[in-house]
Amino acid sequence: MAKRKRKRNVLNIPPSDPPVRPGMIGLSRQVPASIPKPPYAETGDPGPSISSLVRTPAELDAMRRAGAIAAEVLIHAGKFVEPGITTDKIDEIVHNETIRRGAYPSPLNYRGFRKSVCTSVNEVICHGIPDSRPLADGDIINIDVTVFYDGVHGDNSCTFLVGDVDEHSRKLVAETYVSMMEGIKTVRPGSKVHDIGRAIERHARKHNLGVVREFIGHGVGTEFHSDLQIPHYYDPRAKTVLEEGMTFTVEPMLTLGDPSLYLWEDEWTALTQDGRRSAQFEHTLVVTDSGFELLTVASDGTTAAELYAPVPEAAG
Ligand code: MF3
Ligand code: CO
Ligand code: CO
Q1: CA-based, 20 to 30 A from 264: which of 129, 164, 243, 316?
Q2: What spacing in Å lies between the alpha carbon of 179 and ligand 2's midpoint?
Q3: 316 CB contacts (<8 Å, ≥6 apart)?
Q4: Total domain count for the chain?
């Protein structure tokens, strides 16, 4: 008999209420001429990926600097997350903090994206465009900060709790962070890309959470998105063997309900079809001689997730 996949028990959690609706999107923000820009900043077109999967030592040093800035900007943004702030105001905060540090906010004009950061609230899975919607008490919001500095990108995100958040959503956010770290902990020279997704999927399943399949981690370095693909579920075809010096992101999106998605007409905002909530965390990392090194870490060693993600409840 053919092996059938065990179907997940979808918890009986109601859709997010009220649903997130598109707000008004303000003008793109300006970057001073003195700040070095990635090639797509003018045209919107990153072109084909041509970069190597492995970084030179000089590129790696640059990625430590870009990663630290990305982490510090994300931590800074987290201080402003509270009921009443609009996602456009978060865009302004991220934009200004990024350029204050001499970096370029990578999302700006990437494939025509109009804002400097992605803000994804509740049932929005990823790529939410900052707009006039104020955060409400009980929301969850993923802020995805990428910066371009010294010729390379650092890409990281964290899901923040807004005020008093229900227990299911707190659990979703906490376990999404744990799943990312479980995936990252498999990384070492000689391991395979699919080990990452297998660990993430296993953790999600244990907690009855869905795993989004349409968006995956990616090679990152001199290019924002390069050829290496990192699924967050077990894909036997993802057989690439990891080598020292490879740099990529791990950025699982986990859902309370079914992970199937649809896009708004803006062609960016991805939402769950069932309207139930989704959470995401992201780090940029490098494969070292014996394991991995997180690159999106503040210069004092902290990360946004360590500061802001809820801690999972004791086993049970
Ligand atoms: N930072 C996102 C990622 O993790 C990509 C955003 S692309 C944008 O890959 F254009 F929406 F900014
Ligand atoms: Co990102
Ligand atoms: Co990414």
Answers
A1: 164
A2: 16
A3: none
A4: 1
Residues within 5 Å of ion ligand 3, judged at the Cβ atom: 155, 249
Report CA torsion sign: 54, 60, 62, 65: positive
Paired tokens of 140? 């969850």
Decide if 258 is inside a domain. yes
Alpha helices in the chain (DSSP H): 40-43, 57-78, 87-100, 167-184, 193-206, 304-308
Give domain status of residue 183, yes or no. Answer: yes
pLDDT digits (tens, 9 = 90+) for 238-286: 999 999 999 999 999 999 999 999 999 999 999 999 999 999 999 999 9
Instruction: Name the residue range of residue 60's domain.
Output: 51-311
User: Is 146 touching ligand 1 by the criterion CB < 6 Å?
Assistant: yes
From the CB of 282, is ligand 1 less than 6 Å away? yes
Q: Is 223 in the pocket of ligand 1 (CB under 6 A)?
A: no
